């Protein structure tokens, strides 16, 4: 047998194990059908040695790339020193170091005075904690969310998620939420804030004033819709005027993905609560926070907890990431510049493509929305063949979504975009 046959056979065996034993709910392995073996920086390799440029970044959990050397070193040192790995919410040196670093490098320079809540280590748990707290503090039960929004897969977070297919997975009514039109949802000529203001102000609107409004500044799973900065400012004013808490879900758009550490910084607003996860942990390790104004810190001890909220390895990696990348504004400026390059290249690709399409997103969280049904999914498949990993998003998977690691070099970014353009041109020939 030739070596290629041997490697193809090995891959088939590995994928067969997945197909035979893993639940049908698996998803990404169907989109990217190979067995991965190694990862470094912006690259991953499968067991056959084929290299792929990663424009997926663990769905936004790997802003600093795979196996970041400084974070890896810090984690290994911590383990070799027998540092405490699991600690619930006990005080550890790793936790104290993280809190101090986060306060000094992230909160204080932005004049933010948030308290820090450690929920369970996932984004959906952070959302659940924020929703519970908003209801407790206000005494109201309803939370308002937005069209195309995504906030998690547990029941509370799913209730404020818009995607019908994901909501159907609950197999029960999802209660306690209302849906509001996101910026641009009703067309460019309609300011949805007028509708939202009237809905909250009019006693005959048919809804109760909600406990909170939860919003993403850029809708990662919903199709990369990016709210205008003035719209975000207007939303903040409306919520303040009606005594409604504003929760910004920065789980995917935060940690530098749009340039600044928080995606809402450019709008110059201050939410009442912020949820963080994904790349907060730096190394791809589970970690989540809820940031909240001190007057909202009203949970009783243990009223919201979780076995794995004390992930010290993630705190070690997160602290290392903060010290390396967020000690000043240089990294943020670098991400913003790359975002401009990405925007220009994507627009050029759209202009050259013989297909109806639109560039969406902000910073290093951008993509292309294609009008023909199935086009984006076909592009993702063609890109994978060419050694580029990029997923789709949107309710109809109509957007090819690009989340390159923020540390990507110009040459690799250009290489990945060339592969993407080639994939788009190939797909366009059959549509």
Automatic annotation (TrEMBL):
BP terms from Gene Ontology: ectoine biosynthetic process
Swiss-Prot/TrEMBL keywords: Aminotransferase, Pyridoxal phosphate, Pyruvate, Transferase
Cofactor: pyridoxal 5'-phosphate
Keyword Transcription: no
EC number: 2.6.1.76
Pathway where it operates: Amine and polyamine biosynthesis; ectoine biosynthesis; L-ectoine from L-aspartate 4-semialdehyde: step 1/3
Gene3D superfamilies named among the record's database cross-references: Aspartate Aminotransferase, domain 1 (3.90.1150.10), Type I PLP-dependent aspartate aminotransferase-like (Major domain) (3.40.640.10)
Enzyme class: transferase
CDD domains: OAT_like
GO molecular function, one term: pyridoxal phosphate binding
PANTHER family according to UniProt: DIAMINOBUTYRATE--2-OXOGLUTARATE AMINOTRANSFERASE, DIAMINOBUTYRATE--2-OXOGLUTARATE TRANSAMINASE
Record-stated family: Belongs to the class-III pyridoxal-phosphate-dependent aminotransferase family.
Name of the molecule in the record: Diaminobutyrate--2-oxoglutarate transaminase
Protein species of origin: Candidatus Carbonibacillus altaicus
């Amino acid at each position: 047998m030739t070596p290629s046959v041997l490697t193809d056979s090995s891959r088939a065996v590995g994928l067969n194990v997945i197909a035979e034993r893993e639940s049908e709910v698996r998803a990404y392995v169907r989109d990217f059908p190979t067995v991965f073996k190694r990862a470094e920086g912006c690259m991953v390799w499968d067991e056959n040695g084929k290299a792929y440029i990663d424009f997926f970044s663990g769905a936004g959990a790997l802003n600093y790339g795979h196996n970041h050397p400084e974070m890896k070193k810090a984690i290994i040192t911590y383990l070799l020193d027998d540092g405490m790995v699991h600690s619930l919410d006990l005080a550890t040196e790793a936790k104290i170091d993280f809190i101090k670093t986060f306060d000094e490098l992230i909160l204080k320079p932005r004049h933010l005075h948030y308290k820090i809540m450690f929920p369970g280590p996932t984004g959906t748990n952070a959302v659940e904690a924020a929703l519970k707290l908003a209801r407790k503090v206000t005494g109201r039960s309803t939370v308002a969310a937005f069209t195309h929004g995504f906030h998690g897969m547990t029941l509370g977070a799913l209730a404020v998620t818009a995607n019908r297919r994901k909501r159907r997975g609950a197999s029960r009514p999802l209660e306690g939420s209302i849906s509001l039109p996101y910026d641009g949802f009703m067309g460019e000529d309609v300011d949805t804030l007028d509708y939202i203001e009237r809905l909250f102000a009019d006693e005959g609107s048919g809804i109760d004033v909600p406990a909170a409004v939860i919003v993403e500044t850029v809708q990662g799973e919903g199709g990369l819709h990016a709210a205008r900065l003035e719209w975000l400012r207007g939303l903040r004013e409306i919520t303040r005027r009606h005594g409604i808490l504003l929760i910004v879900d920065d789980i995917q758009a935060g940690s530098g993905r749009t340039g600044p550490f928080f995606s809402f910084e450019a709008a110059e607003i201050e939410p009442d609560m912020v949820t963080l996860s994904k790349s907060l942990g730096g190394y791809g390790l589970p970690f989540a926070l809820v940031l909240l104004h001190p007057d909202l810190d009203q949970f009783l001890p243990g009223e919201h907890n979780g076995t794995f909220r004390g992930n010290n390895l993630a705190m070690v990696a997160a602290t290392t990431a903060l010290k390396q990348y967020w000690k000043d504004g240089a990294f943020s400026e670098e991400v913003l510049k790359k975002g401009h390059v990405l925007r220009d290249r994507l627009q050029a690709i759209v202009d050259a493509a013989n297909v109806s399409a639109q560039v969406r997103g902000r910073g290093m969280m951008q993509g292309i929305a294609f009008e023909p049904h199935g086009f984006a999914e076909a592009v993702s498949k063609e890109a994978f063949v060419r050694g580029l990993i990029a997923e789709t998003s949107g309710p109809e998977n109509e957007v090819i979504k690009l989340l390159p690691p923020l540390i990507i070099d110009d040459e690799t970014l250009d290489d990945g975009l060339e592969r993407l353009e080639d994939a788009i041109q190939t797909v366009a020939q059959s549509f």
